[in-house]
Design a protein that fits this description.
The structure holds 2 protein chains of 2 kinds.
Chain A lengths: L4 H6 L1 H9 L15 E7 L6 H20 L8 E7 L4 H14 L4 E3 L4 H13 L3 E3 L17 E2 L5 H15 L3 E7 L2 H16 L3 E8 L7 H4 L8 E4 L4 H10 L5 E4 L20 E4 L11 H10 L6 E2 L4 E2 L2 H21 L7 H8 L4 E2 L10 E4 L4 E3 L2 E7 L2 E8 L16
Parallel strand pairs in A: 1-2, 1-3, 3-4, 4-5, 6-7, 6-8, 8-9, 9-10
Antiparallel strand pairs in A: 10-16, 11-12, 13-14, 14-15, 16-17
Helix pairs in contact in A: 3-11, 4-5, 6-7, 11-12
Chain B lengths: L3 H18 L3 H27 L7 H18 L4 H23 L4 H21 L1 H4 L5 E2 L6 E2 L2 E2 L6 H21 L3 H11 L1 H6 L4 H27 L1 E2 L6 H14 L6 H16 L6 H15 L6 H18 L1
Antiparallel strand pairs in B: 1-4, 2-3
Classes of the chains: A alpha/beta, B mainly alpha.
Chain lengths: 414, 322
């Protein structure tokens, strides 16, 4: 797949389409026909707006970029973004608006596990493909697995499977966990404990942190001070690290999946030095060696140092990759399955279940992505990052094969 | 004294809501169905505030009790909606009874603070009891063959649930209109206006206030039960303080002294929010400004307009005579 406009215009299909349909609405250069409408159920406000900001930036920028480079199957993309307010009730209502009012063809879903849990069922009822952005394995497991849901991001089980062994070898055998008391945090805790045990380590105490806890100190104080490492899947990771360090905990800290998107790590100052994180994408371009990612950074106005020029903030790299790969999944399957309208979505899903690998390319910029058909879960390399000398840099990579865990459902039989 | 105009206005709005739903498509039908469930919450606040003299900032907790009762009861009673709604009313009434007994002896402002503490405490308890409530993630409504007296009903934000909610609300409003013309309601009003005087006259003011508050709890619980059936997913946010504050805002906009105002307040705020969301994410800010305007220029809410208009008309008539 090429994103060169010249290459696209050379394709006979596009030219023929443009000539034969003179009255069609053209939204962007090199595209023609009715737009493919993609809904984005995003956390623009509320407690998860820090990560929602990056998903919104990525989705808007990438859809513009795609439109400038041939769209999807030669058709332009129209992105409709709604705000969940980080709230289940609003999130589900806004999803219904996307499906019923905006008549979207596909939805890029919420990152919040509670919204994703309720939304995937609604999307499934309306036969609308839902690309979940939640990284809680529980939202796609067992009873929550539905045919119209795919995840092109990593999840709590995959990150633990890939990263736990490396951290046990690197940091030590004994671990304590401070987790957000929601599906995501619980899922991270459970899978981390399994991963640590499988690597010969011991997951000692796990302290549940209510999401509305006004003061973290009583919970931080319960952590096992004799542990070698502290695993942190919490939403207020910045405060947690600051409190841990100021309370005398000197252990190595590992932030759970994609937590570096929750805050600008530079706010930690010296307290953050040595902190690890598990991400699907590094921050610095030099850590990726990917011309495709370089193109994406350029298109979105992100510097080689991972700073977004528009606001001077550190970009949420894993959020960006999740959006890019979800769009890549849609582009690949729409074009390969011959999808024309929403009525073809069931056939698109069946087609997607036959695609085992999405090869490295413009919309899979960091390497091949494996798709497991049984639970519609993608697997990719996991990056272990660390704040070194005031910069988040790549420390190690857990290859995608090491992140694969057993599926507990088989949607292909449905 | 019966407020026949208020009843007619609120029933007309309900009827218009149902008729409108047949014309405006599935999404807006769902929005209206949810609004109807919240109307119960707004009415319950008005009842607690204006008739039991308890400015309850914990009505959403009572509403949530009804919602969770339906979620828990659904599998056990095989989708029998009548029993589920009965369970939600009992749950709401029981929680209100406990709250009422705790705050009844407090002063007006003390009771408000007391119910805030109760709302926060129950929200924290709900978050802690994840196995029971699902915490922040919430719990889904079990997939059952839902039926009302043998008639199959599909749970969800649909016209069937809207009609069910609207019919129950119409019965409630008509029932209130009937009761408000009876002697017992005059006693309730007497207790509300001066509990000490009513006590001296031989009425058990405490029992009357508790009874009204429990009834308001049953109404909130019923609304919560309907909400669970419409949303098919209940999270702990449903019982949070912010939801209680919303119920106060709905009641204030509609008219805090009239239970017929609640439905108007819910529709005005929720529909405005829904429309504004299409242009801006700062909806709460705009709604907040609207409420400031209502507080300044329409302190009696929309229902208060009738009194104001009546006053203007009589002033004009008097001016003509002179």
């Amino acid at each position: 797949m090429s994103f060169s406009r010249r290459a696209f215009l050379q394709s006979g299909t596009a030219a023929a389409a443009m000539l034969s349909l003179p009255a069609v609405k053209v939204l962007a250069a090199g595209t023609s026909g009715d737009p493919i409408v993609i809904g984005h159920q995003c956390e623009l406000t509320g407690w998860d707006s820090a990560t929602g900001f990056w998903r919104n930036m990525a989705a808007t920028g990438m859809c513009d970029w795609l439109n400038q480079n041939g769209g999807i199957a030669g058709r332009p993309i129209k992105l409709v973004t709604v705000d969940t307010k980080s709230d289940v009730d609003t999130g589900v209502n806004q999803l219904r608006k996307l499906i019923l009012e905006e008549k979207v063809d596909f939805v890029i879903g919420s990152e919040i596990s509670s919204i994703a849990l309720a939304s995937s069922k609604v999307a499934n009822e309306h036969k609308t493909l839902y690309m979940t952005m939640s990284t809680s394995e529980a939202t796609t497991a067992k009873a929550n697995a539905v045919p119209y849901q795919f995840r092109m991001n990593t999840n709590s089980a995959a990150t633990a499977a890939g990263a736990a062994r490396k951290y046990v070898d690197l940091v030590g055998k004994r671990w304590t966990t401070l987790f957000a008391d929601i599906k995501w945090g619980q899922s991270e805790r459970d899978w981390w404990q399994k991963g640590v045990a499988a690597a010969g380590g011991e997951a000692a105490t796990a302290v549940a942190l209510p999401v509305d806890a006004p003061d973290l100190l009583p919970f931080v104080a319960q952590l096992d001070s004799s542990a070698d490492g502290i695993y942190i899947p919490v939403l207020n990771a910045l405060q947690a690290i600051q409190l841990l360090r100021s309370s005398g905990y000197a252990q190595k800290i590992v932030l759970a999946g994609l937590s570096f998107s929750l805050f600008d790590y530079r706010e930690l100052g010296e307290m953050g030095e040595g902190t690890f994180g598990i991400e699907t994408a590094p921050l610095l371009l030099k850590d990726m060696a990917s011309p495709d990612m370089e193109n994406i950074y350029k298109a979105l106005g992100i510097g080689a140092d991972g700073i977004w020029a528009e606001n001077g903030k550190v970009v949420g790299g894993s959020m960006l990759l999740g959006i890019v790969q979800s769009l890549g999944f849609l582009k690949a399957n729409v074009e390969q399955s011959g999808w024309k309208t929403k009525d073809d979505t069931a056939a698109l899903i069946k087609h997607a279940e036959t695609i085992a690998t999405y090869a490295k390319g413009p919309l899979f910029p960091l390497g091949d992505v494996t798709m497991r058909a049984q639970d519609h879960q993608a697997f990719m390399d996991i990056y272990l990052l660390q704040i070194q000398g005031g910069v988040v840099a790549k420390y190690a990579v857990a290859p995608k094969d090491s992140t694969i865990y057993p599926a507990d459902v088989d949607l292909t039989k449905g | 004294m019966r407020d026949t105009v208020g009843l007619i206005v609120s029933l007309s709005i309900l009827l218009a809501t149902c008729l409108l739903a047949t014309l405006i498509g599935e999404f807006w039908t769902g929005v209206l169905a949810r609004c109807v469930t919240w109307m119960f919450l707004a009415i319950s606040f008005t009842l607690a505030y204006s008739y039991a003299n308890i400015p309850s900032v914990a009505q959403a907790t009572v509403f949530g009790a009804g919602a969770y009762a339906v979620i828990w009861a659904a599998p056990a009673i095989a989708g029998n909606i009548a029993l589920m709604l009965l369970a939600s009313m009992i749950a709401g009434g029981a929680v209100a009874l406990v709250f009422g007994l705790l705050v009844l002896r407090m002063s007006h402002s003390g009771a408000a603070i007391g119910t805030i503490i109760l709302a926060v405490a129950f929200s924290m308890l709900g978050n802690a009891a994840i196995g029971l409530t699902g915490g922040t993630d919430g719990l889904p409504l079990a997939s059952e063959a839902f039926h009302l007296f043998g008639i199959p009903i599909t749970a969800g934000p649909n016209i069937g649930m809207l009609l069910l909610g609207a019919v129950l609300l119409a019965i409630l409003l008509a029932g209130f209109w009937y009761i408000s013309g009876r002697r017992i309601w005059r006693i309730v009003r007497a207790v509300q206006q001066n509990a000490l005087r009513a006590q001296v006259l031989g009425y058990n003011a405490v029992a009357y206030r508790i009874a009204i508050y429990v009834i308001s709890g049953c109404i909130a619980g019923l609304g919560g039960g309907l909400y669970a059936l419409v949303s098919r997913h209940v999270a702990i946010e449903t019982i949070g303080l912010s939801m209680s504050l919303k119920s106060i805002l709905w009641a204030a906009v509609g008219g805090i002294s009239s239970i017929y105002g609640g439905p108007i307040g819910v529709l005005a705020i929720q529909l405005a929010s829904e429309v504004l969301l299409r242009w801006t994410v700062r909806v709460d800010l705009i709604i907040g400004l609207m409420l400031v305007a209502v507080a300044l220029w329409l302190p009696q809410g929309v229902m208060g307009l009738r009194t104001r208009n009546a006053n203007w008309i009589s002033t004009i008539k008097q001016w003509r005579r002179t």
